[in-house]
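User: I'm curious whether this sequence folds into something compact or stays loose and floppy. Could you predict its structure so I can see for myself?
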Amino acid sequence: MEFAALSSATQLGTFNPLRISLQNPTQHNPLPFCYASFPSSYPRVCSCKAILSTHTPTSTHKMFGPHSVDFELSALTALSPLDGRYWGKVKELAPYLSEYGLIYFRVLVEIKWLVQLSLIPEIVEVPSFSESAKSFLQGLIDDFSVDDALEVKNIERVTNHDVKAVEYFLKQKCQSNAEVAKVLEFFHFACTSEDINNLAHALMLKETMNSVMFPVMDKIVKALCDMAKDNAHVPMLSRTHGQPASPTTLGKELAIFAVRLSRERKDLSQIEILGKFAGAVGNYNAHVVAYPNVNWPHVAEQFVHSLGLSFNPYVAQIETHDYMAKLFHSLIQFNNILIDFDRDVWGYISLGYFKQITKAGEIGSSTMPHKVNPIDFENSEGNLGVANGGLSHLSMKLPISRWQRDLTDSTVLRNMGVGIGHSLLAYKSTLQGMGKLQVNEARLREDLNQCWEVLAEPIQTVMRRYGVPEPYEKLKELTRGRTVNKESIRDFIEGLDIPEESKMNLLKLTPDTYVGAAVELARTVENVVNIVNGSNI
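Assistant: Here's the prediction. I'll summarize afterward.
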């Protein structure tokens, strides 16, 4: 293994071109090559057991690459961090969004379609199945395993067609049941591959959202509601344009995100997951020729509904994917709101409004021992960005297909798990970060006590009520670009020609009591969220 020449000198000495050869290239090494370069005076063996020697590269030498290592897929060799570093946090998506999940749902659709055919009186060639046969077929679904999926993949190596491999797999499996074996050719009857695929993808998304994503979203909203109520009374200096503004409460600001996210979560839950089952170009061409007396559009609608999906009757070869675009766009919006939250909390931590509970053994910085970084919110923000990039491409590409169908959607659909996986990872990071937060009320009050100028707003508003001329201009003269404190504000109020009762009310105001209805808004946020969702969190 070769490295490009390094020419610059440093304080440590002159760097030489290096060559690395593994001591034992046949033995698996978790660090199969080393791309560190050392001064010539350094020892010639690095920590990964590779031998370093000076070497002048030629034009035939490759610069990098573990040429003698044939990697097997593992957490260390996976190209996506979702399948490596972060697997433990996203693995609950695997039953639905992996290759296994796609094959499983294809198997389910193929079997359910065969059973549907047995219920159509005009199709005498597929008589109604006995309870025993139905149980056998259902068992193929219920007991479908990773080994079964691997068997399908082995068949695909021969067919070079993933959906046909599922059909052949089922025909093999059903040879052992005499009743089903008589109707094997009715597996995949009148179907185009996309009849099977679009329903499989729809079921993958439906189960993913219901089983994994919605529960985690609900946890975030619930955590926000709890924090909002717990901190409903905690006054906080607002900042607009980064500058001090009218006070609020910490709880009310958290409540805003609870309501925003709950609305988006509701919109997601109301998106219709659609399916088609209309043959090669959406017209039931082969169906009608084979059985002209069957009402195939009605049969297809019944079948799609039986899977818990909504029916799309107007399609070409593929389902139009418009619902997918809507779903992914809505996920992006949920993620955008969460990015806004992550950044706000990051800022509040920076201001000292939140402390972070430390964990024994954790390190914040490799060189600054005092650091406790807001890594959970930073990880969340980063992963939400990655997620939105992938989801944006899905939502913009999938509704577009040349004429009655091109294949560009196929490879793109295999990446649904990327955007959703990074979203899930981000949600969990946000929740983890929220669990470490500890409100620093003393710091919050300190900022408020430094900003008496925020009382200019209520004073000039009361002055307007009683007809005091130029109230805004007078407060602007008092506060803008000047140091304002409790005494200067009180002196100004004392000199106002307004009713005594109103003057006393203004004198009682402080930056930490001037919060309007913020406390009540925070305390009642869960009621609002429940109304939005139509149910309790």
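Summary: The CA atoms of residues 223 and 431 lie 8 Å apart. The first strand starts at residue 9 and ends at 10.
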